[in-house]
Every structure is written in structure tokens, then in C-alpha cells.
Amino acid sequence: MFMEHVPRDIKQQEGPTLTKRGPSSTLRAWELGMRLRRARGDLGLTAAAVAKRVGIAPSNFSAIEAGKRRVTASNLAQLTDVYELDDAEREMLESLRVDAEQRNWWHDYAELYSEEFLRFLGLEAGASTVREWAPIYVAGLLQTNEYARATIRAGSPYIKAVDVGPRLETRLARQTLLEEEPRLNMEVNLSEFALRQQVGGPAAICRQLDQLTEVITRDNSTVKVRVVKYTAGAHALTGGPLSLLSFDNVLLPDLIWQETAITGNLIDRVQVIREFKASFENVFESVALDDEDSLALIQQIRHEMEAAA
């Protein structure tokens, strides 16, 4: 599932060591693009007209406004002139541009992943909340080293053995979002199937379920996991895994990350996002077990797996 710096099972069991989460260059580029688009819209200018005026190819200009392409200092100065922005606005946009130029950890894996997945990593790194439907595997941010390695190895027949280590590094690096301030808030609807699927064998599942228990019961945990039992039947989230990313910035809308066995893509369509949010909340509040019963079932399955190991 989620494609993902050192083995950290022991460290995770001891609880997180909180440090400061640095800015995401991906998120800064997106915010910069959104602010430039809004400034252009305020003046009623078309993208084509502005791109021609500042000498940027139309496709590149669209990518800049979408946050998918960086803007140079000289081009940004030209744009702020065109948009007649005041000194405070110019200073803020330049600060965003400098942050967007910074290199984050996921850039080290650019040759391993698609541009879309790298963008997802950058957006996730800047998110405030993730809501995830996990029907097949335990959510990647909650996986042990052992469990993650097993899912990565099984992920595709085309994954080279030499790439398993870097993918594992990626997944474990993502988990620092639960250990750095401000910590990521996470809500997970997790299927009973995912708990019982013997990824890596019964002993590995025992350790994974111990990890789940530790994460959701630690002091001041920002993670809530609710289990959807087999007996729940059909429900509003029936289907493949999905994640909803939300941000502490009114300019940045929610986004969905959808991943299949062979690809993944970001979805920004308002209606799709609205429907997923409603479906997620319905299952989380009315279909899944509550917090206490979910924890009890996780522990029950852990004991069953221990007996089978």
C-alpha cells in the first residue's frame, strides 16, 4: 500500500520523542500558488495574459499556480508588480518562495517514486489531520518495521529487492509526523480483515497489534482507531483504501489520496471530497466500534494470533 530511517520498533514502543516539525516545501509552494492565483483573480486577469506579460510559458504558469512548479525570484518580483501588491504581501510571498525551494527528506527518493506520490508525501508532511479508511492493511503511519517490510515486498512483482530498503525508509520517515510537534491528528476506520490478515505471519501480527495498542493508548495520543467488524455488512466506505488530508490553512482545501495496487492519485474534486467526508464520519460514528470496544477487539485478536503462533 503506501510506498514508503532506521528500524524503530523498539523506539516506538517506548513512546515518541517530540521534536519540531519543519515546514513542507510542497505545502509552501502550494500556498504560494494559491495566493498568486487569488491576486490575479482579484484583478480579473487571465492566466494566459499574465503568463505572456511576464514571459512564462502558459503550462509552466499553470503549474506554478497549482504549486507543482517553483517560481524564480525574478519571476515572482514581476508577478507582484503586475498584481500591484504592497510591501507586506511581497515579503510574505518571497518568504513562501524561499521555503518552497528547501529540500525535504522525500526529495532524496525522487528516482524511486512518481511525481504524484512525492507530492503526496510533501502534502502529508504539512497536513494537520489525516482521516484514513484502511480496509486491507494497517495504515502505513501505524505499521511496524516488520509489517511494513512484508507489505512492501508483496506490493508488486516489479519491486526490486534493492528497492525494499529505501521504500521502508520512506514509510518509517513518514511516521515522524506522529512524533514531531505539531503532531498529526489521525482518525482511522480500520477493517477487522486488516487486523486478521496475517502479514508476515502470526508472530509479526502480534507485534503489529501491540504497536497499534501502544500508539492509541499513549498519553495525549493524537491517533484514534475504530474497527469495522465483519458483521457490519455493507457500509458507506465499502471499497478500496482512501486518505483525506486536511490543513491548518484556510487557503488550502482538503485533498484525497487514493491508492490502488499499481498507482495512486490525488483528488481535489469538491463533490468527491464532500462525499468521502460524510461517508467517513458516518462509519466512524455509527458503524465502527467505539474507542473502547475497538481496543478490546484489537487485543482479543492479538491473543488469538499469539495462540496460533
UniProtKB/TrEMBL annotation:
The UniProt entry, under Gene3D superfamilies, shows: lambda repressor-like DNA-binding domains
Q: Where is this region: Disordered?
A: 1-23
Residue ranges of every copy of the HTH cro/C1-type domain listed in the record:
36-90
Question: Which domain of life does this protein belong to?
Answer: Bacteria
Q: Where is the composition biased (Basic and acidic residues)?
A: 1-12
User: Record's Pfam families?
Assistant: DUF5753 (PF19054), HTH_31 (PF13560)
GO MF, one annotated term: DNA binding
Query: What is the name attached to this protein's record?
Result: Helix-turn-helix domain-containing protein
Name the InterPro entries for this protein.
Cro/C1-type_HTH, DUF5753, Lambda_DNA-bd_dom_sf
Query: Mind telling me which residue stretches traverse the membrane in this protein?
Result: none
